[in-house]
C-alpha cells in the first residue's frame, strides 16, 4: 500500500485524469466546489433512516451507523445549499442529517479552512492557490454557486474550520479530509480539543495514502475511498480502515468487489433516490449524498415548480450531474422559467414534484420554442423511479414521453427498459408552434390510459388505452438538435 499522496488516474464512465483525483481526491469530480454562508448484517432487519430535524439530539458514529442505510451530507448537501459552507452544513443538519463531510485546506499562514479544491478557480473564478494565499487575502473572495443552484444563490464567504467544528463537532458526526495532504497533525490536534472527539470524527482519505496511520494512532475511526486501480487489492487495503468508499460512477462489479472486502462501504456522491436503491442491492450501507432533503424523502412533493425563486428545488436535476455546474440549464427568476438549450438530447428531472406513489396524475407545462428549434420537446412521464430517462438513449427505466414536434405533430411514445426510441402509441396533427409562442401541454395518466392535449383544445388530444406505466416521476425533455426550449408554469395534481 502506498504511504502518501493522492489517487492516480481512474477509469469511470466519465474518464478521470490523474489531476482529477489529485485535486478532488474522492469527492464529486466536476461538481467540485466550495461554498459558504450568505455574505451580508444483523440477522434482523436494520431500522430505516428517518431523519427528524432536531437541535437537541447528540449524534455519534455509533448512532449514525446503527441505521441502514445511513446518510452523510456530502459537502453539506451541495445540490441544495452552497457546498462546504456554514449555510450548507447548518441547512443539512437542520433537515435532520446526523453527519456532514468537510474538506480542509490550509492557507499560507496556517489557517485551516473548509474548501474542496486546493485553489479558488472553480468556486470563485480566481487564479489563487490556497497554500500561497493568506487567510486575510482569501476572506476577500466569495464562493459563487449560482451556476449550479440558480441565479438567486448569493455569493458566500469561506468558513474557517474551527468555526464549523465549534458549532457542530459536539453534536454531530464529521467526516473530515485533508485535501492538501500536509495538514494531518494540525487537523488531528484541533480535533483532539473537542469532547468525545473519537465518537464524532471519522478521518477520511484516499485509500492509497498513508495519513491513516496517524489518525488510527490517535484513536479515530477511518474511511478510505478507492480509485479503480486499488480495487484488486481491496482485501489488503480494508485492513487499514474501518469503512471503505466507492464512487457512484463505479460499476456494480467494482462496488461489489469493495463490499466483499468485509468492511462497511459508503458511496459518494448520491444525487438520486434510484442510486440508493441500486447501492442497497449491492450491499452498500452508507450514502454520502449531495441531495439530502430529496434523497431521504424529507421534502414533500410540490404541486408546482419553483423556477420563480431563482433557485433549483431539491430533487430537480439535469440528466447528468457528472459534467459539473455547466450541466445545469438556465433558470430565470424574472421569467420563472428553466431553459434546455444544449444541442444534445436533454432531460431535466422534476423530482421536487414527484408524487409519493404511482397512480393517476395530471401534469401541465408551458413550452416556448426558441429560434432554430427542430425536433420534439415535451414531458417524459410515468417512470417508476428517477433513474435517467433521456430521449434517444437507452435507459434502465420505462415510461412514456409526450412530444410536440416543430411540424405541429403531437404524439405519445411508449418506451420499454433498454429501448432508445420506443413506439408512438398516439398522435394528432396540430399547428406548428411559432418561435416565441408559449404552448400548453396537459398530460393525463388515468386508470384507463394516457392522453396529452395541446392548448386545452379537445381536437388537439392524443390518447391511448395503455396503462403499463403510472410511476410518479417525470422529466422535461427535448430531442437532440431540438434547439432551445423554455418551460414554465409546471403543475402536478
Q: What's the architecture of the largest domain, going by CATH?
A: Alpha-Beta Barrel
Spatial separation of the terminal alpha carbons: 56 Å
State the helicity in percent bands: 10-25%
Spans of at least 5 consecutive residues whose pLDDT stays below 50 are 1-54
CATH fold-level topology of the largest domain? TIM Barrel
Count of discrete alpha- or pi-helical segments spanning 4 or more residues: 13
Which structural class is indicated by helix and strand composition? Answer: alpha/beta
How many DSSP E strands? 23
Q: Mind summarizing the main beta sheet?
A: 9 strands, mixed
Q: Evaluate the radius of gyration.
A: 23 Å
Task: Give the tally of structural domains.
Answer: 2
Shape: elongated
In oligomeric terms, what are we looking at? single chain
Give a written overview of the molecule:
The protein is of the alpha/beta class. It has helices at residues 18-24, 61-64, 86-94, 121-124, 135-138, 146-149, 161-168, 184-192, 212-217, 234-238, 252-259, 273-281, 292-295, and strands at 70-73, 99-106, 112-114, 173-178, 201-206, 222-225, 243-247, 265-270, 286-289, 316-318, 330-332, 337-340, 346-350, 361-369, 376-382, 399-405, 409-415, 423-429, 438-445, 450-454, 461-464, 471-478, 485-492. Strands 1-9-8-7-6-5-4-2-3 form a 9-stranded mixed beta sheet. A 7-stranded antiparallel beta sheet has the order 10-13-22-15-16-17-18, with no helix packed on it. Strand 20 and strand 21 form a beta hairpin. The radius of gyration is 23 Å and the shape is elongated. The chain starts with 17 loop residues before the first helix and ends with a strand.
Amino acid at each position: 500500500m502506498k504511504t502518501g499522496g493522492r489517487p492516480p488516474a481512474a477509469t469511470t464512465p466519465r474518464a478521470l485524469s490523474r489531476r482529477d483525483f489529485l485535486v478532488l481526491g474522492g469527492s464529486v469530480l466536476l461538481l467540485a466546489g466550495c461554498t459558504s454562508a450568505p455574505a451580508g448484517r444483523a440477522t434482523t432487519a436494520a431500522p430505516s433512516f428517518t431523519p427528524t430535524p432536531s437541535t437537541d439530539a447528540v449524534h455519534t458514529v455509533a448512532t449514525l451507523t446503527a441505521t441502514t442505510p445511513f446518510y452523510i451530507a456530502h459537502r453539506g448537501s451541495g445540490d441544495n445549499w452552497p457546498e462546504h459552507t456554514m449555510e450548507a452544513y447548518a441547512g443539512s443538519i437542520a433537515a435532520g442529517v446526523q453527519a456532514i463531510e468537510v474538506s480542509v485546506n490550509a492557507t499560507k499562514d496556517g489557517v485551516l479552512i473548509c474548501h474542496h479544491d486546493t485553489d479558488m478557480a472553480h468556486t470563485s473564478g480566481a487564479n489563487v492557490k490556497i497554500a500561497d494565499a493568506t487567510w486575510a487575502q482569501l476572506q476577500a473572495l466569495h464562493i459563487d454557486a449560482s451556476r449550479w443552484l440558480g441565479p438567486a444563490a448569493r455569493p458566500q464567504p469561506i468558513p474557517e474550520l474551527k468555526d464549523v467544528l465549534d458549532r457542530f463537532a459536539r453534536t454531530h458526526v464529521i467526516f473530515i479530509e485533508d485535501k492538501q495532504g500536509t495538514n494531518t497533525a494540525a487537523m488531528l490536534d484541533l480535533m483532539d480539543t473537542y469532547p468525545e472527539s473519537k465518537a464524532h470524527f471519522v478521518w477520511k482519505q484516499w485509500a492509497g495514502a498513508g495519513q491513516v496511520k496517524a489518525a488510527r494512532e490517535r484513536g479515530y475511526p477511518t474511511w478510505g475511498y478507492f480509485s479503480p486501480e486499488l480495487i484488486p487489492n481491496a482485501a489488503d487495503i480494508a485492513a487499514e480502515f474501518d469503512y471503505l468508499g466507492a464512487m457512484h460512477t463505479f460499476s456494480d462489479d467494482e462496488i461489489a468487489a469493495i463490499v466483499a472486502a468485509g468492511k462497511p462501504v459508503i458511496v459518494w456522491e448520491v444525487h438520486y433516490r434510484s442510486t440508493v436503491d441500486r447501492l442497497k442491492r449491492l450491499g452498500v450501507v452508507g450514502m454520502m449524498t449531495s441531495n439530502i432533503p430529496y434523497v431521504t424523502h424529507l421534502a414533500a412533493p410540490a404541486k408546482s415548480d419553483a423556477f420563480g425563486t431563482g433557485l433549483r428545488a431539491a430533487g430537480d436535476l439535469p440528466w447528468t450531474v457528472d459534467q459539473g455546474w455547466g450541466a445545469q440549464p438556465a433558470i430565470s427568476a424574472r421569467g420563472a422559467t428553466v431553459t434546455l438549450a444544449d444541442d444534445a438530447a436533454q432531460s431535466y428531472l422534476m423530482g421536487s414534484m414527484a408524487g409519493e406513489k404511482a397512480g393517476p396524475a395530471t401534469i401541465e407545462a408551458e413550452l416556448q420554442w426558441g429560434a432554430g428549434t427542430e425536433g420534439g420537446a415535451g414531458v417524459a412521464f410515468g417512470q417508476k423511479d428517477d433513474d435517467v430517462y433521456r430521449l434517444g438513449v437507452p435507459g434502465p427505466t420505462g415510461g412514456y414521453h409526450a412530444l410536440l414536434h416543430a411540424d405541429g405533430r403531437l404524439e405519445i411514445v411508449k418506451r420499454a427498459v433498454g429501448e432508445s426510441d420506443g413506439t408512438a402509441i398516439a398522435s394528432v396533427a396540430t399547428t406548428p408552434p411559432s418561435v416565441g409562442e408559449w404552448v400548453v401541454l396537459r398530460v393525463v395518466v388515468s386508470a384507463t390510459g394516457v392522453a396529452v392535449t395541446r392548448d386545452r383544445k379537445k381536437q388537439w388530444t392524443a390518447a391511448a388505452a395503455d396503462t403499463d406505466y403510472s410511476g410518479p416521476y417525470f422529466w422535461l425533455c427535448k430531442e437532440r438538435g431540438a434547439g432551445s426550449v423554455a418551460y414554465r408554469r409546471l403543475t402536478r395534481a
